[in-house]
Specification:
heterodimer; A: alpha/beta; Rossmann fold; 8-stranded mixed beta sheet; 5-stranded antiparallel beta sheet; 12 helices; 32% helix; B: alpha/beta; 11 helices
């Protein structure tokens, strides 16, 4: 097996006062070294919880987690102690969070926070760590990194803060990085810059990347393979080009057509009707049937299985779309 | 072919004659003083809005585009009278907004409402939906309890929420639903002018379309005028008739949306356009990614505001501030070299 990360049947539930929230319901994921996969879905579909579960960052209670298998780089994550995980996080797998302002410590200058990475995981001295931090800041395109080193998070703009987080994630050259909505809080112009840096560093270092986002235009720009999630389940899994040119699941197609276009012109925006169902009251049968235009009685009764379409594609739908080309 | 006529016709002069103007600004400036480092040091200002003149016609959707910190929201606040201008005037329905008596001002304010960017912080978490939506009517007065309740129910239905939602709290709703509550609140007094301050930026891409469609339906039904603020040109493209691109408090390019999209002459507009990512894999995008970020609005760059990031900036751009000049029937641009670097 040459997979870097292999997750089989991951489940996460949150018992609450009002009932059990099944945030993730049996997900299989695999990531090969150096590739970029994307997990796409709307808010509340469980994509962030999945990433936290892989990092084992979910505190239990309240979360209860189960997986048949979870291996990273040959190591069984399920059996690792918290102490072993601390050595692993940041060094072999690290994370880029969505909101850089809350992810950074507000009372510590950003340079010192970067130093911590080197001091914790390597045998560098303080001076060496400082030099390494400045170099890392330069790599992500922070201008005048010697000066920015002493800045506090609030003194930096949103794009700069996100760069600091990226520098931090890539500092020890990990094998896997999970980027949880890395550009959602940014302007379109800054988003383009940040994505370019992320892609450049990923390719140069041969890092595997799990990109978590709700925006398919970001996915089109970055990913090799895409998992589409809905209500805690994977509904479609396909290589990027197949998914974009020939989406088989109605939900995927809905997501694709709801991205605003610069080229196509219309007076009305294509929308997926209705809202994501509450995780406490998931519909019977296929979770998407309440919003699906191809819904039949079969869909309201039984949940379709995730079946192989071909060697590289999997789909969870009774009535796959066929032959329709997007764009 | 780009033809540029340098006649210095300024938008508001063209439009003064037309009477279907709803709101317009004349050389509007909003400056915020910065605390001086020394007691007798030079007074410095953040020039959030600097010499902006725009005209919004009745019933249209006017797009305002630019990065964070370019003064979009400050301009919107000044239009609503929430921010006193340092200089210049705002005319709403022909009356100078800042010269009105308090009573008249309140009257005028009723006709202008706002939808906020973040539906998570713009709704009081301890108020239920009924109280949130009825507050404007309560303040205005003149409604009986039954009338108010009926009106709230009507509004809920209008924005696509249920009767059962009446006594639920904001925390029980998703982002898109909360934005619907915000919209219901904004339209409760039948305003003529609605400011939509990045109404979809905080929402999932899949919900964007729902909210935008709702806003467009409401506009048709209630005959409202929108000022639509966004940082994403792809969002404003289909809904705005006229467009204004701002950078560091100044107008860079303004005019008819179609004309700007077909023929973006300002380098900044083109960079905004190329920053929009496409989902079409086969579409070859001419990428023009700007270097660096928007500079600090304190001591903004001399000359053209955009010169520090413009790939085509020359000596003239660093010295002289370009004036807004006409370069098409309904197309104005503030650049010394309109259309520079464009492919034929």
């Amino acid at each position: 097996m040459n997979e870097l990360l292999n997750v089989q049947n991951l489940k996460v539930i949150f018992p609450t006062e009002r009932g059990i929230v099944r945030a993730v319901e049996g997900i299989d994921l695999c990531v090969h070294p150096g590739e970029c996969i994307a997990i796409v879905g709307e808010s509340g579909c469980g994509k962030s919880v999945t990433s936290l579960a892989i990092m084992k960052l979910l505190s239990s209670p309240p979360a209860l987690m189960h997986a048949d298998e979870m291996t990273f780089d040959g190591k069984n994550l399920l059996q690792m102690s918290e102490k072993q995980m601390l050595d692993l996080r940041g060094k072999d797998m690290s994370m880029i969070f969505q909101d850089a302002l809350t992810a950074l410590n507000p009372v510590m200058c950003v340079g010192r926070q970067l130093d911590e990475m080197f001091l914790r995981h390597t045998k560098m001295t303080r001076t060496e760590a400082k030099a390494a931090s400045i170099k890392a800041l330069r790599l992500v395109g922070v201008p005048a990194p010697e000066k920015r080193y002493h800045d506090y998070p609030h003194q930096l703009s949103g794009g700069m803060r996100q760069r600091v987080l990226i520098a931090m994630a890539f500092a020890i050259k990990p094998k896997l990085i999970i980027a949880d909505e890395p550009t959602t809080a940014l302007d379109v112009t800054i988003q383009a810059q940040v994505l370019d840096i992320l892609q450049k560093l990923q390719r140069e270092n041969g890092t595997a990347l799990i990109l978590i986002t709700h925006d398919l235009s970001v996915v089109a720009h970055m990913a090799d393979r895409v998992y589409v999630m809905y209500c805690g389940k994977i509904v479609e899994h396909a290589p990027l080009r197949d998914l974009f040119t020939d989406p088989k699941h109605p939900y995927t197609q809905g997501l694709l057509s709801s991205v605003p276009h610069l080229t196509a012109s219309s007076n009305r925006f294509v929308q997926i009707p209705d809202n994501v169902p509450s995780p406490l009251k998931k519909p019977s049968g296929c979770y998407f049937h309440t919003r699906c235009s191809h819904c039949t009685p079969e869909c309201t009764q039984c949940m379709p299985r995730l079946t192989d379409v071909d060697d590289h594609r999997q789909l969870r739908c009774h009535h796959p779309l066929g032959g329709e080309h997007h764009g | 072919m780009i033809t540029v006529s340098c006649a210095a016709i300024i938008p508001w002069e063209v439009n003064t004659m037309a009477d279907n103007t709803l709101i317009r600004t004349e050389d509007l400036c909003v400056w915020f003083p910065v605390r001086r480092a020394l007691p007798f040091g030079k007074r410095r200002y953040v020039k959030a809005v600097d010499n902006v003149s725009i005209t919004i016609e009745k019933g249209e959707t006017f797009g305002l585009v630019g990065e964070s910190g370019c003064g979009k929201s400050t301009l919107a606040n000044a239009l609503l009278g929430m921010q006193k201008p340092t200089a210049g005037k705002v005319y709403f329905k022909g009356k100078d907004l800042n010269a009105l008596s308090i009573k008249d001002f309140k009257e005028a304010r009723r006709d202008m409402q706002m939808i906020f960017q973040d539906p998570f912080s713009s709704l009081d978490p301890r108020w239920d939906v009924y109280r949130l939506i009825s507050e404007p009517m309560y303040i205005r007065g003149g409604y009986t309890k039954e009338q108010m309740e009926q009106e709230v129910l009507r509004l809920l239905k209008l924005v696509g929420l249920n009767e059962d939602d009446l006594h639920r709290y904001p925390s029980e709703f998703s982002g898109g639903q909360r934005q619907r509550i915000g919209i219901a609140r904004a339209i409760s007094l039948h305003p003529d002018f609605l400011v939509c301050d990045e109404p979809v930026s905080a929402l999932d891409v899949s919900v964007h379309a729902q909210i935008l469609n709702l806003l467009m339906e409401l506009q048709q039904e209630m005959n409202m005028t929108y000022l639509f603020i966004s940082h994403n040109l792809a969002v404003v493209k289909d809904i705005c008739k006229n467009l204004c691109v701002m950078y560091l408090g100044q107008v860079m390019e303004t005019g008819d949306t179609q004309e700007i999209f077909n023929n973006p002459l300002h380098p900044y507009t083109r960079s905004l356009l190329s920053a929009v990512l496409s989902v079409n894999l086969d579409e070859k995008q001419e990428r023009m990614i700007l270097k660096g970020e928007i500079p600090s609005p304190i001591d903004a760059p001399k000359g053209c505001r955009f010169c520090t990031r413009c790939p085509y900036a020359s000596e003239k751009c660093h010295q002289e501030t370009p004036q807004l000049q006409q370069c098409g029937e309904k197309h104005f641009i503030a650049c010394h070299f309109p259309g520079i670097g464009m492919e034929k």
